[in-house]
Design brief:
Blueprint (H helix, E strand, L loop, with lengths): L1 H21 L5 H5 L5 H22 L2 H5 L8 H4 L2 H20 L6 H17 L6 H36 L3 E3 L1 E10 L3 E2 L5 E2 L3 E10 L1 H6 L4 E3 L1 E2 L2 E2 H33 L6 H19 L1 H10 L5 H21 L5 H16 L4 H33 L1
Antiparallel strand pairs: 1-6, 2-5, 3-4, 7-8
């Protein structure tokens, strides 16, 4: 019973780490394109991710089996408390370290590495089924970002052509506003500065209209079937962002639940509820650093590019969830943003290189962490 409680706690910890690193990925383009602000984007991400997590009970239970380690490690090991604890803590520690540095990594990748690392120590590699590892884990993780990049690069020019054919134009405006220049004041004995005066002058900002007010990158003018084109695009952008977040909850929740459901406590419904709560709290409390990276440090984007990236991501992740393929929402969403950066020629290669390096390190770091945890727990149980 004590082990079961610890496993549930470790699973909740992993869910929290997953939410902190992953929750904002679906709405990063909303924030990055200036469609909405951080708080509204995070609220939308939390609600739609929660909906996806709860829906996982009905549609994505196949992933529970995949990430329980079945067919990867011996069946007897799957029910081992020290193995399950090692996997949960190894993966969550890896994801949290990346979150603290603002790097978006894959919880799926972390779980895969943790399963492999703890499994290698537990069975000394002799019974670890590497064929299953390659087929069920490595191939989807490697192919999904490539698909996302390719589809985004192909689809965005088609959407841009369609916009132009409908007569919808992108606008740039010249904005004028008052600029306040503080004048150094007198320093008092208590260290406070009392300003003497402020100079006020007018300045000109060459940018899009909304950027002058809310840092939006681009606005569209024109009507489609009598409706303002920008309003339609904003609606579709929010819808696509919600789909990405929903798909992420649908795809990621069963992977985490797989660790706790083997304890036999709570039952599948309550285990999914526990994970859904952890994911939501993680995003609300600790998503900001990864949000800045995803929204602003990979590439600048306009509304149309953000919508395209989200559409591609949601399609790939929902399709993968339906057929039980454990793709990484991180890899797919970042892949779509990489595709946008190629399409608009505004790639921030230093940031992209750092993200790719982190992806390479995720699996071995998680494997080493889980192996260490398993060794400690197994030694304590002897």
């Amino acid at each position: 019973m004590e082990w079961a409680i610890f496993i549930l706690m470790a699973t909740f910890f992993l869910a929290f780490a997953n939410g902190a690193n992953d929750n904002f990925k679906g709405v990063a383009t909303l924030f990055g394109s200036g469609t909405t602000d951080y708080k509204k984007a995070l609220t939308w991400a939390t609600l739609t991710t929660l909906a996806g997590s709860l829906t996982a009970f009905f549609f994505a239970t196949k992933l529970v089996k995949t990430f329980s380690g079945k067919e990867l490690v011996p069946d007897a090991l799957i029910a081992s408390p020290d193995f399950l604890l090692a996997v949960a803590l190894g993966a969550s520690a890896t994801v949290l370290m990346a979150t603290w540095t603002g790097i978006p990594i894959s919880t799926t990748h972390g779980l895969t590495g943790a399963l492999m690392g703890a499994g290698l120590v537990a069975v000394v590699g002799a019974q670890l089924k590497f064929a299953t590892l390659g087929k069920n884990f490595f191939m989807p993780l490697l192919l999904s970002p490539c698909l996302a990049i390719g589809l985004t690069v192909m689809v965005y020019p088609i959407f841009r052509w369609g916009r132009q054919m409908l007569g919808v134009k992108s606008n740039t405006c010249v904005c004028m506003g008052e600029k306040i220049i503080p004048v150094p004041g007198l320093k008092c004995t208590n260290g406070q500065i009392i300003p003497v005066a402020q100079l006020r002058s007018w300045d000109i900002f060459v940018d899009e209209k909304e950027s002058c007010e809310a840092k939006a990158v681009q606005r569209y003018s024109g009507k489609v079937m009598g409706v303002d084109a920008q309003q339609i695009l904003d609606f579709l952008h929010f819808l696509s962002a919600g789909l990405v977040s929903f798909a992420r909850g649908l795809n990621d929740t069963p992977k985490i639940v797989a660790l706790s459901v083997t304890t036999g406590m709570l039952g599948l419904k309550w285990n999914i509820g526990l994970v859904a709560l952890g994911v939501a709290l993680g995003g609300i409390i600790s998503a900001r650093k990864v949000a800045e990276t995803m929204s602003h440090r990979i590439t600048t984007m306009n509304h149309g590019q953000g919508f395209t990236a989200n559409l591609i991501t949601s399609f790939l992740v929902i399709f993968a969830s339906k057929i039980g393929v454990p793709v990484s929402t991180t890899h797919v969403s970042c892949g779509s943003l990489f595709g946008v950066s190629l399409a608009n020629g505004k790639a921030q290669w230093k940031t992209i290189g750092g993200i790719l390096s982190a992806w390479v390190l995720t699996l071995p770091v998680a494997a080493m962490m889980a192996a260490l945890f398993y060794f400690l727990f197994h030694s304590m149980g002897r």
